[in-house]
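User: Some background: our group keeps a shared notebook of sequences we're curious about, and every so often someone picks one and asks for a predicted structure to add to the entry. Today it's my turn. The entry only has the sequence so far, pasted here. Could you supply the structure so I can complete it?
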Amino acid sequence: MSPFRRLRAGLAAWLRTFATRPRFLALAAFLFAGDLKADPRLEGFPVDLTLLTGALLTGTLAVRSLRGARLRSLGGPALMGVWFLSFVPGLAQAAHSPYAFQKMATIFTFTLLSALAPLFLIDDDSDRIRLMNALACFCLVIAFGGLLGGGRSAQRLQAFGAGTISLGRASGLLFTYAAIVLAGDAPLPALTFGILVLAGVAGTFSGSRGPILAALAVLVLLFGIGRMRLGRGLLRLLWAAGLFLAVLGSSLSLAPKGSLARVEAFFQGQYGSSESYRVNALHDAWRIIGEAPWGIGWGGFATWVDPERGVGRQYPHNLLAEVTLESGWICGAVTLLVLLAAVVAGWSGTWLPGGRVVFAGAVFYLINAMVSGDLNDNRPLFMFISSALMLWPRPARVAP
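Assistant: Of course. Here's the predicted structure to add to the notebook entry:
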């Protein structure tokens, strides 16, 4: 076979490795709609992108149900149902503010949809790979858009105006998935390495420390104490790590100064205003939690703590503290139970390729949810938690 034909065959095999299905693209589009619609070029779009993609996903689920799609098990869905029921007490004492109303409405619509979707879309382990492939497509668009939109004078790199955290999370998830694929036997590893470099550089240039830490933690868990039989993949990973660090080092002169300063300070153990804000907010939240067993109501953090002095949209930047503070101790206990169950279920499925990527996604977004965003900002976490719970009591079959 000629070199050209071998390359073409290898490229075709590589594309098959990253194949997906329309139903997973619909889910990925919904999860990332909030990031994409921040693009100024979509300001004149007549329909809200989250509403549009939500309607598309709902239609997809309806078609799947009519075609006979059913729950693969009852344990995971039941636990997710109990989790959402534990959010109900926060409704009774909700703050009288636009943010509180929007928060409550979003919990039981968009966030609930994120949690329900995998239950009806995933049939077998290969579907988990296809789902991650769909997410990776959108992550690649966001990471690439961030690098194209950045510049030397920018303090922080952003994508589509969606913010540095959105860019950092998308890049971090893409970097993690590319590393997992590199550890396997996928064809044309040079192409996968190129994606890893793009994601790693974009993530570093965003200056978001949470996604960087989460990506490193996931890879340590999977490759250090996980169940992956690396074999030759270990040598490939070591080469990739060394070459990536070389590329990253040579590109730092192009990085926004603000991003570099944040990352350097983090790895030197220094804390700035962002960390101080989160620590103080978390401390005040836990202080009030001890005095409010039934919670203070959704959106109550802005009223009872109010570190930003009157700004409506405020939260502790910690999912567990947020739900315990605003919906009570029972909600906090149920949330902790669900998160632990999802991590254990995901870990039990890491012997399967699809189980590994679900575990990686769940842990990645869980770490991020403990340091940034409010409950509804973490819709991908709900999707991955639901997907991980489907691995319990036993993983779904591997597609032939």
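Suggested note for the entry: The radius of gyration is 21 Å. The chain is about 70% helix and 0% strand.
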